[in-house]
From TrEMBL:
<comment type="function">
    <text>Catalyzes two steps in the biosynthesis of coenzyme A. In the first step cysteine is conjugated to 4'-phosphopantothenate to form 4-phosphopantothenoylcysteine, in the latter compound is decarboxylated to form 4'-phosphopantotheine.</text>
</comment>
<dbReference type="GO" id="GO:0015941">
    <property type="term" value="P:pantothenate catabolic process"/>
</dbReference>
<keyword id="KW-0436">Ligase</keyword>
<comment type="function">
    <text>Catalyzes two sequential steps in the biosynthesis of coenzyme A. In the first step cysteine is conjugated to 4'-phosphopantothenate to form 4-phosphopantothenoylcysteine. In the second step the latter compound is decarboxylated to form 4'-phosphopantotheine.</text>
</comment>
<comment type="similarity">
    <text>In the C-terminal section; belongs to the PPC synthetase family.</text>
</comment>
<feature type="domain" description="DNA/pantothenate metabolism flavoprotein C-terminal">
    <location>
        <begin position="8"/>
        <end position="214"/>
    </location>
</feature>
<dbReference type="GO" id="GO:0015937">
    <property type="term" value="P:coenzyme A biosynthetic process"/>
</dbReference>
<dbReference type="GO" id="GO:0071513">
    <property type="term" value="C:phosphopantothenoylcysteine decarboxylase complex"/>
</dbReference>
<comment type="pathway">
    <text>Cofactor biosynthesis; coenzyme A biosynthesis; CoA from (R)-pantothenate: step 2/5.</text>
</comment>
<keyword id="KW-0210">Decarboxylase</keyword>
<keyword id="KW-0288">FMN</keyword>
<feature type="binding site">
    <location>
        <position position="100"/>
    </location>
    <ligand>
        <name>CTP</name>
    </ligand>
</feature>
<dbReference type="GO" id="GO:0004632">
    <property type="term" value="F:phosphopantothenate--cysteine ligase activity"/>
</dbReference>
<feature type="binding site">
    <location>
        <position position="162"/>
    </location>
    <ligand>
        <name>CTP</name>
    </ligand>
</feature>
<dbReference type="GO" id="GO:0046872">
    <property type="term" value="F:metal ion binding"/>
</dbReference>
<comment type="similarity">
    <text>In the N-terminal section; belongs to the HFCD (homo-oligomeric flavin containing Cys decarboxylase) superfamily.</text>
</comment>
<keyword id="KW-0456">Lyase</keyword>
Length: 218
């Protein structure tokens, strides 16, 4: 029987990639299967939390224990939905791989070879940074970082600059873990602690992340 340590807690989880349309047939996206976020959402719900899952396009079947699932495509839609639910939640887990950029002018017609080279891109809003500013006392903001170099440095920088309470770092330069894989190996950082979770199934990693959140913040 699973423990119900997140009973009476509301948890918002974002998962999967965002998709930024270029024209009716092309898009810009990030590598992400959504698996880590879905496993986290499932684990929080198993432990008694009321979970809202906001998901970009994935091939995954949502865990049946999750009653509230919101589908999004672009980072703009993700931002709107997250802001709508932010205040109501105690723990916000931003697992989604948000596209840092979007296309400036979506084309209603399929672009031709000679026009597509002139694509203009612009920055997407940094959602988690906005949440870090809005956060009220007692709310826990969890971020993810997928890095290929200077892993620890980048993770700690994000934690501080974006006012995130805890960041889960993935080394995406490794081929055996992370994107589209069943397994992951991560390091958790808070302002005071660092904890390495050895390579394991994403379901077990999700379980360990929940344990860490509970023992650190509650
Ligand atoms: O800075 P970076 O994009 O690597 O930060 C990763 C974390 O920030 C993830 O938790 C991701 O969900 C979040 N993020 C965001 N808005 C963006 C880009 C990333 O909330 N535009």
């Amino acid at each position: 029987l699973s423990k119900k340590d997140f009973m009476n807690k509301k948890v918002l989880v974002t998962a999967g990639p965002t998709v930024e349309n270029i024209d009716p047939v092309r898009f810009l996206s990030n590598r992400s299967s959504g698996r880590m976020g879905y496993e986290l959402a499932r684990e929080f719900a198993n432990r008694g939390a009321e979970v809202t899952l906001i998901s970009g396009p994935t091939n995954l079947k949502p865990p049946s224990i999750i009653k509230k699932i919101i589908r999004i495509e672009s980072a703009k839609e993700l931002r709107e939905r997250v802001l709508e639910h932010f205040e109501d939640n105690d723990i916000i887990v931003m697992t989604a791989a948000v596209s840092d950029v979007r296309i400036k002018n979506y084309s209603e017609q399929k672009l031709k070879k000679d026009t597509i080279v002139n694509l203009e891109i612009e920055k997407n809003p940094d959602i988690i940074k906005e949440l870090g500013r809005k956060k009220r006392v007692g709310q826990i903001l969890v971020g993810f970082a997928a890095e290929t170099e200077n892993l620890k440095e980048n993770a700690i920088k994000k934690l501080k600059e974006k006012k995130i309470d805890m960041i889960v770092l993935n080394d995406v330069s490794r081929e055996d873990i992370g994107f589209e894989k069943e397994e992951n190996e991560v390091t958790i950082f808070t302002s005071k602690e660092e904890l390495r979770l050895e390579k394991n199934h994403k379901r077990i990693i999700a379980n360990n992340i929940c344990d860490f959140i509970f023992s650190t913040f509650f």
